[in-house]
Amino acid sequence: MSRKAEISSLNARLKAIEENDLRRREENDRIRREEIYELLGQLHILLDDSENKPEKCDLKDEVPTKHKQLSNSDDLDLGDVLRSVTAQDSVSSRKAPRICRFYKVGNCRFGSGCRNIHTMPLREISSASSYYTSQARSTITKQTSTSVPREHNFAALLPTKDPRLRDSIPVNKYGERVDPYVEKPAEAIWEPYIRQVKRIRLCNAYYLTGRCTAKECNYYHGRLKFDPVDAIRYQLKTERCNKRARCRRLDCLYGHHCQSLSCDGAKLCRFDQYTHTQDLKVVRWETPDGRTAPDELQENRVLPDTSGLNIPDGLLILP
């Protein structure tokens, strides 16, 4: 074997070793990330339970000193997190549930009645420790006002009139659904819509699809002085889809991440806090797995926000 061929062979072997080492590191990072994510999810449930049961001890005051120090450190150790969560679990009145593995793929048939946790996985592999530290800090201290601010041009990243929206689902590199941007309707449409739903709620299925399949629908199906379609679509996008970012229904009209520029993920937001820093860059288009049943659109789960509007009572229904 010539010297040149020998050098080439050694370089190839060295490259193969480096690639194998990189794959092993990435796999270890993935396993570590999933373990930390599961622990943080359990801790989040414990803290929420303590807020809903004021007669019991406040778990935020019971968090071990070492765990509080983790929120200010640059390196998050899995063993420290595990010991912290174990200490809190001894204070809790019940065993923390596990992460629902079916929900991760958008296929949990129990829905909101599932006894396991329905949350999304953390996403960043690089700079993982700083990301987990920020998540632990927001979970333990509940200082939502310090969450990462949104980019002012985020709406420009969202798909709008892409023809692929007719038969495909846009997702980011983490497999999370990215919604097309839905602009708030003009006041000439929005204010009449608000007036209407304050008195008599509309049947969303009827106005969006032209039909209502409910046997005894209690919502209005008649003529209006305005076209409510844009207002209904905008309102539904402000309501969180039960399947969250794993939803793959082609015509799902509910929101899968927050689209408000001024929202920082505070408690009043209907979307999970992590969606306010979600990667909105579309990297692929996936095949949908179904359509929304008409009876799922019968009514808004919540009334639209009417704050700041001086709206007198009165119907805008034609006889």
Automatic annotation (TrEMBL):
GO MF annotations in UniProt = zinc ion binding
**UniProt keyword annotations, A-Z:** Metal-binding, Zinc, Zinc-finger
Q: Which residue stretches are annotated zinc finger (C3H1-type)?
A: 94-121, 198-224
List the Gene3D superfamilies: 3.30.1370.210
C3H1-type domain: residues covered: 94-121, 198-224
Keyword Transmembrane in annotation: no
Concerning InterPro entries, the annotation shows: Znf-CCCH_tandem (IPR057654), Znf_CCCH (IPR000571)
Transmembrane regions: none
Zinc: present as a keyword of the record?
Answer: yes
Its domain of life? Eukaryota
Q: A Pfam family this protein belongs to?
A: zf-CCCH_tandem
Q: Which PANTHER family match?
A: CCCH ZINC FINGER DNA BINDING PROTEIN (AFU_ORTHOLOGUE AFUA_5G12760)
Q: What is this protein called?
A: C3H1-type domain-containing protein
